[in-house]
Amino acid sequence: MKRTLLAAALLLAGTSAFATTGTINFNGKINGSTCPIEIVNPDSGAVGNLVQMGAPRVADFPNLGAEAGGRSFSMRVPGGAACGIDPDNPNTATVTFTGVQGGAGADGSLYAIKTVGGAATGVAVALKDRSGNPVKNGEASAAYPLNVTGATEMFFTAVYKSTAATVTPGAADADVSFVVKIN
């Protein structure tokens, strides 16, 4: 009997030696995007959020409202139900761009250049839809028909537009946010 109690005591003592406490860390993200939109540079096919605008000369802006430089780009919407595209009722999509208003007294169609040391002055960025119409800050673009079975390329153009009679040289970067709405 003494052996059984001693064995049971050793077994219990050995079992409690393996008990431990700790912490489990969970890491993740809740994504609010319903559809992964890609920004595509049509010249190279590269995907990313940077559109290279080029480097027009001050002389390319001879007067107020002159346009120069710029690039086309597309926003690629994947096809299928994951993006809410109904195969029985083809959808369209619009894009709303928002950013800091560019130019004094502008009509809402210009996006401001970042005001950093050495930045260009007298110029802003203008965005245009596939038909060349301005896409105003905070307003939906023209509707783009969506491809039910494959990706849709929504084409836009970004150009520099002078907002003053005189443009000065310097960095001409702008940040513009977007929301794609599938209708």
From TrEMBL:
Keywords, sorted A to Z: Fimbrium, Signal
GO cellular component labels: pilus
Gene3D superfamilies: Fimbrial-type adhesion domain (2.60.40.1090)
Compartment(s) where it occurs, according to its Swiss-Prot or TrEMBL record: Fimbrium
GO biological process: cell adhesion involved in single-species biofilm formation
Entry keyword annotation includes Transmembrane: no
Recorded family membership: Belongs to the fimbrial protein family.
Name of protein: Fimbrial protein
Organism: Pseudomonas bharatica CSV86
